[in-house]
Amino acid sequence: MTDDIISATNLSKTYKVYLNKKGIIGNIKNIFIRREKINIAAVDNISFIIKSNSVTGLLGPNGAGKTTIIKMLTGILSPTDGTIKSMGLNPFSDRKKYVKNIGVCLGQKPQLWWDLPVIESYKMLSKIYSLEEDSFNKYLNYLIKKWNLEDLLFKPVRKLSLGQLSRCNLIASILHKPKLLFLDEPTLGLDIYYKNIFLEMIKEIKKDLNTTIILTSHNLYEIEELCNNIILIDKGKIIFSDTLQTLKNMYEKENEIILILSKPANDFDGNQLKEKYNLFNIEKLDNNSKIKISFDKKKINLENLISDLLVLFKNNIKDIVFSNSSLEKIIQNILIKDHSNNIDR
Amino acid sequence: MIKLLKNKLEKYFSIIKINFSKVLVYKYSFLIEIISLLFQFTASVYIWKYILENSPQIKNYSVISLTSYLLFSTIIKAITQNTTSIDIEKDIRTGNIYNFLILPIDYIFLYLFRDIGSSLGRILLNSWLIGIYGLLFFNVNIYYGIVNYLLFFISIVFSILIYSEISILIGLISFWTVSQNGLRYANSVISAFFSGSLIPLDFYPDLLKKISLFLPYRSIIYVPITILQTNTIYSNLFQLLIQFLWVSVLFFINNKLKIKAFNSLEIVGG
Prior knowledge:
- The complex is a heterodimer of chains A (345) and B (270).
- Chain A has 345 residues and is of the alpha/beta class.
- Chain A is 37% helix and 28% strand.
- In chain A, a hairpin with a 2-residue loop joins strand 8 (229-234) and strand 9 (237-243).
- Chain B is built from 11 helices and no strands.
- The A-B interface holds A 15-16, 67, 71, 74-78, 95-97, 99-100, 102, 104, 106, 108-111, 113, 115-116, 120, 123-125, 127-130, 156 and B 7-8, 10-11, 13-15, 18, 21-22, 25-26, 94-96, 98-99, 101-106, 263, 265-270.
């Protein structure tokens, strides 16, 4: 099944912002004089398709328009222009019908009732979604056992730690087995341990429910772990939209080898090597005890380079570290390029 | 069809239940609320006792009937109180409203049933304590007919709904103004004045009485107590009808306002 679950065409959203005059006199003027209004385009004429059963990562710097897009896709905001069709419905005008089939998990704003035990919130949600009691209980028990939530169920939500809260919150968003799951920065503020548990949970949920997931995150490790599609947004426009692998193939040019030496190589001169293999750079780090070599894997003979290095630093190599350019670096490069293009214009 | 209705009822019943239990969680806060209400009640009873020292009656009210009026007024105040306008404002200001909009639930119904739930909690926790306090320390008349009490309870349900709807209305206005402290303050003052919570509306000059007829506040406190103290069934049913009309009118206004508000919703950031 590779149907499109969401298709958005020429989507735009502009916010009206009032310009306030500054200072005390300005503030007094604000009371009496109609303030100047300006329109800010948060999302600017974008079109995209999300395939069912995919995990799509919505990426972009702060203020790029990710959250606005998510809000339009969840039916909270009406687009200023353009149309969204999601599961055959218009999210905004068919909101009541639409939200029954989606789950939303916001990292910043937990859905659980602050004053009551977790289980009460779950029960309430089951009623709100009009779930069958037996199958709900069965599914809840399954989730509780699977993710060791027994101890947390009867604690008031306000007494949970952030790690516990975010796990309970994720569970809350999938109780009704949504076909479409939105995760808006779900791991915000979590430590590495809980982050990994959380990622594991998302993977399992995907397997269990066969849902389509749309994820926004600043954490690129997460995106790399979970997503197969990526939509990269900056300043309300899409600058890249394809699979993660394509992104890597297109932009992954820089690979690195770091040699860690046992004795500092003070008299080593990398220029010869650099010319021979057409390397990007050779750097000496940490008082000449580390050597960083960066190159394009596709353009050189890696085997020869390594054997040359082994000969050059014979009996002096403590460790060799290989690294591909990280997704972070790739995206950083795309964004920087995009920004400089904008300045040119 | 029946199943659909059952699901709907269960949905809203669960909101009532969860807010009922919330009242019980914060029982101490509610007890403090009663104590402050009792102070208010006691102070106003002594003021009236002083005023009525030399004259047996004002406008058909004796010390006993005024004390009874104030007691019931305090009880209704204790029951109908809510924090809805503040909560809706907070929902909007913090963007928490997002969490409600992603649920298959009506935002106005959510708050209406929430207030019913917490009012039930307050009936259980507060109202009888106030009643006992009044009976123990003051000379009051609580002996009315069963029919009166029956209509009184129906009337109180309407009071809860009307007060809740006014609060929702004020809350919804913060979609445009973001902060509504001024409005909330004005509402509490006007409400105290026109609902008859301080003194029976009979004491006002004719003009103010006429104005009160065109405001929903009258239905919150004055009407239920009148129903309790009046024996003409037709007039009582008529008062209930007026309360019902206010419930419907406010509901209609809130719904229109909600649709307008959601269309212009701009939760910037977060």
